[in-house]
Amino acid sequence: MKKMLKIIILVLFVLFVIFLYYFFIGKAPKQKNIIWGVNFSQMQAESLKLDWRETYLAILDDLGVKNIKLLTQWDWIGGKKDDYFFNDVDWQIKQAQRKNAKIIYVVGMKTGRWPECHIPNWANGLSKEQQQDEILKYIKKIILRYKDNDAIAVWQVENEPLFKFGQCPWYDKNFLKKEVELVKSLDSTRQIIISDSGEQSMWFGAAKIGDIVGTTMYRKVWGRISDIFGFYIDSFLPPVHYWRKAQIIKKIFGKDVISTELQAEPWAQKLFYDVSLEEQEKTMNLEQFKKNIEYAKETGLKEFYLWGAEWWYWMKKTQNRPEIWNEASNLFSNL
Description:
By secondary structure, this protein is of the alpha/beta class. Helices cover 44% and strands 17% of the residues. The protein has a single domain (36-333), classed as TIM Barrel (Alpha-Beta Barrel), CATH 3.20.20.80. The protein has helices at 2-24, 42-47, 52-62, 74-77, 87-98, 128-146, 173-186, 204-209, 239-253, 277-280, 286-297, 309-318, 323-333, and strands at 35-41, 67-71, 102-107, 152-157, 192-196, 212-217, 220-224, 230-234, 256-263, 303-307.
């Protein structure tokens, strides 16, 4: 019995060493031609009390961004039942076409930015099944409207739909599959991204459903324990961690992994525009921005969408702090 116990302990120790070596030791290969893009949310720009059109044009014209992940909300477009408002999104896509920029278009209920799930008031009282029927109707409207637009490079169905984060009424993997099936039936020409947490997932679920896996990449955040207690956390994951997980996904599923959400804005104990600038800079400042870019380059991934372009413009426009905006401009001008 003692001998068997020793063997089990030895095997577990060996497995632990292998795990530690594979996910935490080593370096990923350098990528020569990295694709850099940004996330853009009209809602976020307006929450910062910015002119969202001015902000969007500055991203395209001043920064020279050529790849945009466009976050649109169901409650903004479908705020009235069966009465969809597309004017703002039409304008955003038209401006991207003007600059030959390519768009990842995010569709669904959970599309990013707090509270993550964006449900119209009229749909709040519906049953889960009724909400799902309405979401499918909404997605169909989006795909049919924009599938012939050459600015749309790829669809993303939901945002981290398998990761329970945000104020969402339900999570349903089977419904996610229905959403993907619907998009594919309406547009077979484009791939579909399913995104997942970069730090708290192995991405298997996303890889089984989507054509491309999107991952988050956060380096310094507020760890919430309760409504009144938490602390700042520096990620301990080395760059090679993302590369090795991406290689597993590639070997098992034949899918590529990209970073659809690279931290480039603060993550504070409240929504960052409700805390002081000093508090914001505990998790994002010029030095941290540069560190995150260099970290991303060392992960071995080929494509990154920075999360925070609206904040950079807010810093420049309202705080007279253009340093991060200028640094981002250097990044995109060197492509």
